[in-house]
Each structure stands twice: as structure tokens, then as C-alpha cells.
Specification:
Layout lengths: L5 H9 L6 H15 L10 H11 L2 E6 L10 E5 L5 E4 L1 H4 L45 H6 L7 E5 L6 E5 H6 L4 H18 L8 H6 L18 E2 L9 E2 L1 H7 L2 H18 L8 H4 L23 E4 L6 E4 L1 H4 L5 E3 L4 E2 L3 H4 L1 H4 L24 E3 L7 E3 L2 H5 L14 H14 L3 E7 L8 E9 L5 E7 L8 H13 L3 E7 L12 E6 L6 H14 L4
Parallel strand pairs: 16-17, 17-18
Antiparallel strand pairs: 1-2, 2-3, 4-5, 6-7, 8-9, 10-11, 12-13, 14-15, 15-16
Helix pairs in contact: 16-18
């Protein structure tokens, strides 16, 4: 058994491929060993090593998927964070679960109350815009499509004018015409077949650079895959396949060219080519010798020393590895870079200690297997649940928030606090007993101190004139969850047809509000109501 996305299963079925990753990796391991002429070698260290390796990278080891377990064979593991079960090779286990991937934040800080913007395709300036078929696509799709949209759109090839459909995100990643791609693939296969029968001596570029011990007459451009020795005009001696050298040239020269380009760009904009400030704050002050922090590139593969300022843990890692994959801030504490605590300390200050993870272990816009609990910094008596994305988008304590609440509702909440002592405003509530919705926002809630909680709703005559159905559904859900329910119905709203001893309606008047008297009547009703 394993977990798969429905979209993944449908895509595999469309392509006629097997969905099961265990079967796929078993077949891959067998064919790989056969291709290399290797026999089955036991997994180094056995099951104990596999179990420890899984534990070190955030997995719970369940079982091997082959018997005996050979090198390259898959294992059944479960992510300890999202509980997803999957079939993984040991090498893939080292990358951790995809739920723990921590992409870089392009904008390191943002005003949490600022407007949210989407990366619209039409504003991207990408070449794929020339492929957009304005005649067949609706204008609304053009106006709203984002760069990562999974919806299907109509396109027209800029070369052969073929009209076809494809997902927007796939075209953004790499615009491909089905007909042109098929032609290019056929041409390459034909060229590859010719290369398999073409000796090195017939290709001047390869013959001039040939520095291998074998006679170039006996070696073909493609076919064997064996690495050969070449000598480039700059004196480097790379060992690559002839086809790779023909297509890409000397890998050493390419690397030098890339580094020089990065140095030139760094000189033009030094801030863009230095490691980010969070990594810089963990630079070990003593163990890196004469290496200066200002000279270290974010993509450096040099092993350097780091020290976590919170727990004091010291370790070696390259900047490139530190800023890829899970992007751990501290491998011992399992904290991450670009965490909620780093970018939004004012929000992290309201993170409840009872949450399974700390604010240093979650991303501001990440998803968690639980809905985080928050404690209001203004009034610690206020607690609520909200997703990380909603908090990073600007949501705050619902009980302190006045936006979206009428003045008369605020006045009734104030009187409810005076009468009940601990009334909350705008509290989100959830329950397995709810049928209509998974969550409701209740105008006023108060703990009666005897195990009962009362939910009070204020129904304005204007806003609730045509909401009898939803008001009834909300009341029934709250009653099913065990709440006492009171609705303050503004005249001339008709009563709701709810027959339950724990439900009561009071008529109130917008032209003559008296919140103090109303809450006193509600309190009297709760006192006369027998707790069953």
C-alpha cells in the first residue's frame, strides 16, 4: 500500500505506464544491474542501516520491498510529518519527503497586511505568450491564468501553426508543439543511428581533440557510452563520451566560463551573489580559517563550518547543499531556513507552545498536517486556529478584530463580557458533528463554567433577510456539536423553525437597541435551562 495523487494516477494511466512505484523501482534496479553486468549485491549495512538512514531523513522505516534487499532496490517508508507512504530507494530517501522541500523565498520579507498579487501569465513577458490562441481561448482565461495554472488552454505553434491543447504550466516550463517535437525526435533518432556507425576519424572536431589510447578508427561517435580522453585547445584533458564532447565541448572550459560570468555579475551587483543573511548569521567565526564570508558564493561546493546561534550545534556543509532541498537551518533541531519565525517574528510570537512543530520548523506559506493554534499577543486569553497562509496574508486574532463586525454586534459582545465574564467574538469553531460546513464563525461564544458553551448569533434584518436556510443550518450544526444556541433576530425577521430545548430566539430592535437588557435575558435563560 502507498499514497498517490489522483492526478498522478490518471496521468500514468493516460500514458500506459504502471502506477506502482515499488514495481517501477524493482524493474529499474534489475535492468540497471543487467546493463552494467552486475550481480545482485546486498544493501550495505543491511536492514539496520536502511532503517537508520530513513530515520535520519524524516522517514519511518516500514519494510524492504524485495527479499533479499539488493543494492538499488526500493523500501517502503512513511514520512513522519505528512504520514505519506511511498516506495523509495535509499538514495532518494536521502532527499527527504517532498512535503519537507523548502523552496527559496524570492521576496524575503513582506508587509503581512500588504496586498497579495498573482504571477499572471499575460504579465510574464515569456516567449510562450506568442503561442497563445486568442481566437479559441476565452478572454477570462487570458485575464486570470497564472504561471502555475494546471488548466488546459488552446495554443498555436509559432513554426507550423498547428493548433493543440496543453496545460498552461507545462507550456510555461517548455513550449512544445506535438508535431514539431515528433519531427525533432525522429531526426535525432536518425542522426544517432548514423553516429553509431560513424568513426571518430570522420568528425574533424573529435579527431583534432582525440587523446585516447584507442585507435580513433575503431571508435564510433555513439554506441558504447564508454568515456574517452580528449584534449581541448586550452590544455584540459576531460574524460567524456565522444557524443557529449561533440555536443557540449570541454566541461572544464564550460565551468570556467560559468564561474567567470558569475564573477562579472557579482562585481556588477555584489548583494545578489552573496549567501543570504540567515546563512551568514550561522557562519562559524573560528573554524573557517582565512576564508572570508564576503568571498563565499551561494553555489559554492566547498565544505565550510557553521554554528547554530540557538543550540550551539556545529557542523560542516557546503553553501550549495545548505540552500537546496529541505534547506535546514539546523540539522540537529530540524529547523528550516526562511521559516515563519525568521521572516514574521511578530506572528511567531503568537505560535502556541502546544503545536507539534515550532515556528522555526514551518514556512510562512507552507502546509501542515495540523491546523496551528495561536495565542493572541494582545490578550493571552484569546486562542484560535488558523492556517499559516492566512496568518502570513494578514489575518489576526478574530476576537480582537473589528473589521467585518457591525457596531451593534460589538456592543452586544461588550455586554456579553460583562454578563458572562469570558465571552469571545468571531470565534471559529469546528466539530466532527458539523454537516453543512467544516467550520463556522460564531458572533459570540461564552463558557458557562459547567461544561456548557453558549453560541450567540446577531441576525440583522438587512443582511439576514434571505438567509433563513443558512442560519438554520448553522444553528443545527452548533446544536449537534453540543452548544446552547441563542439567535438575536432583528424585527421584522421571521423566526426559524427549530425545535430544540437548547435553542432560543430573542427579538431585538435596530431602532431601540438595548444590549445590556438582552444579555441579561440570555443569562437568565441559561440559568433556568436544565443541563441534561
Amino acid at each position: 500500500m502507498a499514497h498517490y495523487r489522483l492526478e498522478y494516477i490518471l496521468e500514468k494511466n493516460r500514458n500506459g505506464e504502471a502506477t506502482c512505484r515499488a514495481c517501477f523501482w524493482r524493474g529499474w534496479a534489475d535492468s540497471s544491474r543487467a546493463l552494467q553486468g552486475m550481480g545482485g549485491l546486498p544493501e550495505p549495512g543491511g536492514y539496520d542501516n536502511a532503517r537508520q538512514h530513513a530515520h535520519d531523513h524524516g522517514y519511518r522505516y516500514l519494510e524492504p520491498l524485495t527479499s533479499p534487499s539488493l543494492s538499488g532496490d526500493p523500501h517502503r517508508v512513511q514520512c513522519v510529518y505528512c504520514e505519506r507512504i511511498s516506495a523509495e530507494r535509499l538514495g532518494d530517501i536521502g532527499f527527504g519527503c517532498s512535503c519537507q522541500r523548502n523552496p527559496r523565498r524570492e521576496r524575503q520579507t513582506r508587509n503581512v497586511s500588504g496586498p497579495r498579487t498573482k504571477d499572471l501569465l499575460k504579465d510574464s513577458g515569456l516567449p510562450v505568450l506568442a503561442w497563445w490562441d486568442h481566437d479559441r481561448n476565452d478572454q477570462s482565461v487570458w485575464d486570470t491564468a497564472t504561471l502555475r495554472a494546471t488548466r488546459t488552454a488552446h495554443w498555436r505553434c509559432t513554426d507550423c501553426q498547428l493548433k493543440f491543447t496543453s496545460r498552461i504550466r507545462d507550456m510555461v516550463t517548455g513550449a512544445r508543439c506535438p508535431d514539431c517535437e515528433a519531427k525533432r525526435s525522429a531526426e535525432w533518432k536518425a542522426q544517432y543511428a548514423r553516429y553509431q556507425n560513424t568513426p571518430i576519424t570522420e568528425v574533424p572536431e573529435l579527431l583534432d581533440a582525440w587523446d585516447d589510447e584507442d585507435d580513433p578508427v575503431t571508435v564510433t561517435v555513439a554506441g558504447s557510452g564508454r568515456l574517452r580522453k580528449f584534449r581541448c585547445p586550452h590544455g584540459h584533458h576531460p574524460r567524456v563520451s565522444p557524443l557529449t564532447y561533440l555536443a557540449s565541448g570541454c566541461p572544464v572550459c564550460r565551468g570556467n566560463q560559468t564561474r567567470q560570468q558569475q564573477r562579472d555579475e557579482a562585481q556588477a551587483d555584489p548583494a545578489a551573489y552573496r549567501i543570504n543573511r540567515e546563512l551568514a548569521a550561522q557562519w562559524h567565526p573560528e573554524k573557517n580559517g582565512k576564508i572570508g564570508l564576503a568571498t563565499v558564493s551561494p553555489n559554492s561546493r566547498r565544505n565550510l563550518w557553521w554554528r547554530d546561534p540557538d543550540c550551539g550545534y556545529e557542523w560542516q556543509e557546503t553553501p550549495a547543499v545548505r540552500d537546496a532541498g529541505q534547506r535546514l537551518r539546523c540539522p540537529r533541531c530540524r529547523t528550516i531556513l526562511d521559516s515563519l519565525a525568521f521572516h514574521y517574528p511578530e506572528i511567531a510570537a503568537e505560535w502556541a507552545p502546544g503545536n507539534p512543530l515550532t515556528a522555526w520548523q514551518v514556512r510562512p506559506s507552507g502546509q501542515t498536517s495540523f491546523t496551528p493554534t495561536w495565542i493572541c499577543s494582545t490578550n493571552p486569553g484569546h486562542t484560535w486556529q488558523a492556517t499559516l497562509a492566512s496568518r502570513a496574508s494578514g489575518s489576526a486574532c478574530p476576537q480582537c478584530r473589528e473589521t467585518g463586525k457591525s457596531q451593534i454586534e460589538i456592543q452586544h459582545h461588550t455586554e456579553a463580557q460583562a454578563v458572562f465574564g469570558n465571552a469571545a467574538s468571531g470565534q471559529p469553531v469546528t466539530s466532527d458533528a458539523f454537516v453543512r460546513r467544516a467550520r463556522w464563525l460564531v458572533d459570540i461564544t461564552a463558557d458557562l463554567g459547567d461544561g456548557r458553551v453558549i453560541a450567540i448569533e446577531y441576525d440583522g434584518s438587512y443582511w439576514h433577510a434571505d438567509k433563513a436556510d443558512i442560519d438554520t443550518a448553522k444553528s443545527l450544526d452548533l446544536l449537534a456539536a453540543g452548544y446552547l444556541v441563542v439567535r438575536l433576530r432583528e424585527h421584522p425577521l421571521p423566526p426559524l423553525h427549530i425545535e430544540d430545548a437548547r435553542y432560543r430566539e430573542f427579538v431585538v430592535y435596530a431602532t431601540a437597541p438595548d444590549p445590556a437588557a438582552v444579555m441579561t435575558r440570555v443569562k437568565a435563560w441559561t440559568g433556568s435551562f436544565t443541563h441534561r
